[in-house]
Each structure stands twice: as structure tokens, then as C-alpha cells.
């Protein structure tokens, strides 16, 4: 005798990748502060808007090092032109296929585990969006808990490797 298959609720996606709601964000590795933007399309315009937001959030910073993967949008001519007009932003390019080197990837993992993986709002996009925003808003003023979770505080390998560089707090 076979057991009947269990149905798992699945969020609707509207058919194309651009119909999925997306989030772009930045993690301050000193304070644990998270800045983010969300939209149904995250492309050149949102990446540029994110850079501009970072310069507004950190107006006194002489240099903002922005760790980025090799997503083709990051090197699009429009984005590079915007970067030339924001001289305080210094991109730091990660090697291809090395997300473990970017601490914000661990924040996205935490978000997926706590909010997205078990959500029951497949047909309630606004409720899901509200929960995602609520999760990220917890870090709007910074968080030592987040810094520990992503490995930038404590005795982990990343924290120890970065400590001598004085890039991260001790």
C-alpha cells in the first residue's frame, strides 16, 4: 500500500522571473546595520538606487567598500557610469561562484530559513512582503546578533581573519 503524496503550498510566481518580488541589500560589517530595497524587478536602476542610498545613509564616509558578486548587472555600463559619479563607493569584486565570502549571503540564508521556507502566504504577497520587511527592519539600526550570525564577531574563521585587517570590530 502506498501513501498518498502530501501537497506542499507553493507561492505563485506569475510565470516569469521578473514577476518575482526581489530584495537587494547591504550589510554594514562594523555595526550590523542592513539597508535594503525591494521591487518586482531588481536590475540596473535598483542597483544604482542602492548605491545612492548607501551614500545617503553614510554621508560622512570617505570610502564605502561594497562587496559584490559578479552578477552582470554590477558591470553594466549604466551602473559603472553611476559609480563614477559616486566616488566614495569602491566595489570589491568577489571571485566567481564564491558566495561564502560575502557575509550578507548568510543574512539571506537566515531570511529564507526563518521567513520564506515555511511561509504559508503563497497567495498573499503583501503579507509575505510585510514579514520579509519586518525581518530585515530588525537590523535597521545595527545588530551584534547579526554580526555573530554572519561570522564577523566572535572567534569564527572570518572574524579572526578580518580582525588583523581592522576592517571589522574586535
List keywords for this structure.
two-stranded antiparallel sheet, Nucleotidyltransferase, domain 5, disordered N terminus, alpha+beta, two-stranded parallel ribbon
Q: For the residues shown, what is the average pLDDT?
A: 81
Query: What is the CATH domain class?
Result: Alpha Beta
The helix tally amounts to: 6
> What global shape is seen?
globular
CATH architecture name: 2-Layer Sandwich
Largest sheet entry = 2 strands, antiparallel
User: What integer value in Å does the Rg equal?
Assistant: 18 Å
Content of β-strand = 5-15%
Number of domains: 1
Question: What are the secondary-structure elements, in order, as H or E?
Answer: EEHEHEHHHH
Judged by helices, strands and strand pairing, the structural class is alpha+beta
**Which percent bin holds the helix content?**
25-40%
Q: What's the total count of β strands?
A: 4
Strand line-up in the sheet with most strands: 1-2
CATH topology title: Nucleotidyltransferase, domain 5
**CATH homologous superfamily classification:** Ribonuclease H-like superfamily/Ribonuclease H
The N- to C-terminal Cα distance equals 59 Å
Low-pLDDT regions: 1-18
Structure description:
- The strands form two sheets. The chain has a two-stranded antiparallel sheet with strand order 1-2. Strands 3-4 form a two-stranded parallel sheet.
- The chain is globular.
- Helix 1 packs parallel to helix 2.
- Helix content is 35%, strand content 13%.
- The chain is an alpha+beta fold and 170 residues long.
- The chain has six helices and four strands.
